[in-house]
Each structure stands twice: as structure tokens, then as C-alpha cells.
Amino acid sequence: LSRRPLLAGLAALGLVAMPAGLGFFLFESRSLLIDGLQPSAGLFLTALGGGYGLYRDAEGRRKTLQRQFAQFLSPEIVRKLAATDTEAALAVENRVISAILVDIRSFTAMSEELAGTRIVDLVNHFFAIASEEIFARGGTIDKYMGDSVLAFWNAPLDHPGHADTAIAAGQAIIERVRRDNHLLTAKGLPAIEAVAIIETGACSVGNMGTRERIDYTAIGPAINMVARLEKEAKALGQALVTGPGTAAMTLRPMTKIAEVELRGFGDKVAMFVPQ
């Protein structure tokens, strides 16, 4: 009933009216006079307290949701989740998602040349760009790893055309990083270049972890593939590549550029770039 407030209200109204109605019936039919006011008042206060408790629980879940996911989901998705069955939406389930891994080319060499605080400024600049472009397209950020951002689409909410959206996000990040390099050079930091790897496939997605720490994350072949293809993309000098799953699902024309052997994958994996 907590998910159907109108039905809950009608049921509560019926329960509250029942003692008074029964008293009226007994008086009319058997001339028995009983007090229906006190039980009706008691039921009304009970219903009022229960309704307030449901409201407090809903607000608590909403605040928990906002705290947990404000950093990883766009505000619009957080609002949509708060208006739906949050527990069901965040439960672990198998979903076809499009995962993207974006990072900085030649980051290791840069980190050896720059002082700690300056490399942090550079990475934070990159994270801000990647996060904004991912959120702008309804993506979910899984985690930040060193100089990399892992994100995906089509979870926790459905996202039609998620393969195309992931490609668009990767292209937008690459272009904006290039366009905003002047902000880095103005601070005496080196210009950077972004690399994006995308793959689409079935993964387990949901809240995972322990009682002490829980994260909304995805695990599965698509996640493994973007991690494996990262080095291959850099070796080929490509800024954006996709795996075969994304190439099969996207509406964009794609060109196969290589087939590579990846650890954990039996057959050779084809790599594609958008035309």
C-alpha cells in the first residue's frame, strides 16, 4: 500500500469509518447503543501515524539515494530514481549496457615529470570534462581509476540507443579535452589527449559490496573488454575504438581496423572506429 497512496487512503478511510458505521447499524437494527467514536479516533490516529512513518521512510530512502549517487549519476536520473521503486531499480540484475573507459594518453610519462599537486590539477581537469559530458548524456559513472573514468549507459534506467550515446559521449570528451587544453597550458601544465574505448554487452549491474561499503557498479565481459582494449587502442594511435558488441548495435557506420588477442577472451577480438 505504501506504493499506492490513493488505495491506502481509501483503505484507511474505510477502517476509520467502520466502528461508527457498525454502531449506527446496531442502533438502528437492535436498539443497541455503543460508542463508535473512540475506536474510530484510535484508528484514525493509527493511520495518521502509519502514513507519517511511510513518508519518513520514503524521505530517508530519497536522501540516501541522493547521497550515494549524486557523484555518479546526473541530477535528472537521481530525480527519476527517487520517483520510482528505488530498491528494485538498484537491485543487481543482468542488463545489456554500453561501457566506456576514457583516460589520458601518455599519462605515466607526464606523472613522472610533474609534481604531485600539479598532476592532481591535470587529472581533476580531465575528470571534470569527462563527468560533465557523461552526465549530459544520461550516463552512470562507475568509478574513477587513476587517470581513467569508467562509465556506462542503460542502467539503472533504460536508455534507448545507448551504444550510439556512448560513442557520442566519447567523441565529445575527446573534442572538449582538445578544445580546453588552453586552460591547462595557461597554468603551465602540458596539453593532454583523451582516449575512449567502448563496448556493449550483458553485465551484472547493481549495488555490490559489503555492509561497510557498497557501490553501484557493473561487472561482466563488456567491462573487461574496455579495460583490455585500452592498451591496444593506444598502440594503434586511435583516439576512439569500440568492440564488436557496440559495432553490432550502433546505427553509425563502423570500420574494422584490427583483430587482437585479449587475455581472458578465447577468440580474436575485432576493433572498430566510427566512420
List SSEs in N-to-C order.
HHHHEHHEEHHEEHEHEE
What is the global morphology? elongated
Radius of gyration: 27 Å
The proportion of residues in beta strands is 15-25%
Uncertain stretches: none
What class would the helix/strand composition place it in? Answer: alpha+beta
Helical percent range? 40-55%
The major beta sheet can be summarized as: 6 strands, mixed
Total count of strands: 8
Distinct helical segment count: 10
Gap between N and C termini, in Å? Answer: 52 Å
- The mean pLDDT is 89
Model description:
The chain is an alpha+beta fold. Helix content is 52%, strand content 23%. The protein has ten helices and eight strands. It has helices at 5-30, 37-69, 75-82, 86-89, 107-113, 116-136, 162-179, 181-185, 221-235, 244-249; strands spanning 93-104, 140-145, 148-153, 194-209, 214-219, 240-242, 254-260, 269-274. Strands 1, 2, 3, 4, 5 and 6 form a six-stranded mixed β-sheet that branches. A two-stranded antiparallel ribbon has the order 7-8. Strand 4 and strand 5 form a beta hairpin. Helix 1 packs antiparallel against helix 2 (37-69) and helix 2 (37-69) packs antiparallel against helix 3. The longest helix has 33 residues, at 37-69. The protein is elongated. 28% of the residues are buried.
Task: Give a quick summary of the entry.
The chain is an alpha+beta fold. It has ten helices and eight strands. Helix content is 52%, strand content 23%.
